[in-house]
Design a protein that fits this description.
single chain, 342 residues, alpha/beta, TIM Barrel, three-stranded parallel β-sheet, 9 strands, binds 5'-deoxyadenosine
Length: 342
């Protein structure tokens, strides 16, 4: 299905929420049925050399209490995923130079050597050689949000970083045959429905395998502390529109939704999302992974947070899947490449 910018803007302004969410759910059911994929996130370091204006982990936040997990601690989390039959893990961290690219490659090899898990990386912008090394070590997927489609705003909010480089990095990931994920925040300061419509069309043009979108939430220890949060209803409309335009992408109902408003993760599933990503970071540190206020605050322990996630899936009227949930998009791409080379 295609939609032009003015049609998208009309939906973003609330033209027909009931019709929009019903269509998004119909599209997700036509591809994924009623299954929800789980991804266990291991947040292994909250040190970051970047200084993004919106993020609680920014290097300029001197109040943040920092931690790094050891190899053994990371394996504790990996084993939680294995014990709970969660077939995909996401290694996520700030851009922390303490862990060398070789060390990460060694970790990936060790995990895939021991366990049958799909490995997703969410380790920020990296050069092509590093991304190749991690792919060869056994990583399957990579998440790198473009954050906003508004280049000028990107340059304001991510000092020293170039929007074009981020896009190039996504291209490299595609060339290396990762399943590629990107996404944005909804409601960043300086943005409106017009820029959001452009972001929706822009993300769609990337033909992504995974798309992660959540509301911007103002963090008290950042320069954006006094800005309003992204609105939840606008975020839900964005999710539904992106789902309709990207039927084959894996799309999470993010924890930022839940932090913005209780019950919003259920609403996200009903608006066409098919993935949930519970944190399986060790208890002792998980609350310190404070990207935005409330992140990881609701979960007493991994089992509790997993039970909560199961409850959300049941309540929304879907079923938990035990599959790795490879994106149907990459399967389609491989098939068409095979046909072309015949
Ligand atoms: N509010 C919501 N999401 C945020 N992120 C970073 N800071 C915030 C915030 N204040 C998101 C970014 C990043 C992801 C890991 O978390 O999109 O890519
Ligand atoms: Fe670092 Fe990512 Fe936060 Fe930016 S958004 S400061 S890169 S952890």
């Amino acid at each position: 299905m295609t939609m032009n910018k003015s049609e998208i803007i009309a939906y973003l302004n609330g033209q027909d929420d009931i019709g929009l969410f019903a269509e998004a759910d119909r599209v997700r059911r036509s591809v994924f049925g009623d299954e929800i994929f789980l991804r266990g996130i291991i947040e292994y370091s909250n040190y970051c050399r970047q200084n993004c204006f919106y993020c609680g982990l920014r290097s300029g936040n001197r109040e943040a209490v920092r931690y790094r997990l050891t190899r053994e601690e990371i394996f504790e989390s990996v084993e939680i995923a294995v014990a709970q039959n969660i077939p995909t893990i996401v290694l996520q961290g700030g851009e922390d130079p303490h862990y060398s690219a070789d060390w990460i490659a060694g970790l990936i090899k060790e995990i895939v050597g021991k366990y049958d898990l799909a490995i997703t990386l969410s380790l920020g912008e990296q050069g092509p050689e590093v991304l190749r090394m991690w792919r060869e070590a056994g990583a399957n997927r990579y998440l790198l949000r473009i954050e906003t489609w508004d280049k000028e705003n990107y340059h304001k909010l991510r000092p020293g970083r170039r929007w074009e480089n981020r896009l190039d990095c996504l291209k490299v990931l595609r060339e290396l045959d990762y399943e590629v994920g990107s996404g944005i925040m909804v409601g960043l300061p300086g943005e409106n429905v017009e820029s959001l419509a452009e972001a929706i069309l822009g993300l769609t043009s990337l033909d992504l395998d995974m798309i992660g979108i959540g509301p911007f939430l103002a963090h008290p220890q950042t320069p954006l502390r006094d800005e309003p949060n992204g609105a939840i209803q606008l975020t839900l409309r964005t999710l539904a529109l992106v789902r309709i335009l990207n039927p084959y992408a894996n799309m999470p109902s993010t924890s930022a939704m839940e932090c913005a408003s209780r019950g919003a993760r259920i609403a996200g599933l009903r608006a066409g999302m098919n993935v949930i990503m519970p944190s399986i970071t060790p208890e002792r540190v998980k609350r310190l992974y404070n990207i935005y206020p409330g992140k990881n605050a609701d979960s007493d322990d991994s089992e509790h947070s997993l039970n909560a996630v199961m409850e959300i899936i049941r309540e929304a009227g879907y079923r938990r899947s035990f599959s790795k949930g490879i994106s149907p998009n990459i399967l389609r791409r491989h098939e068409s490449e095979m046909t072309l080379s015949k």
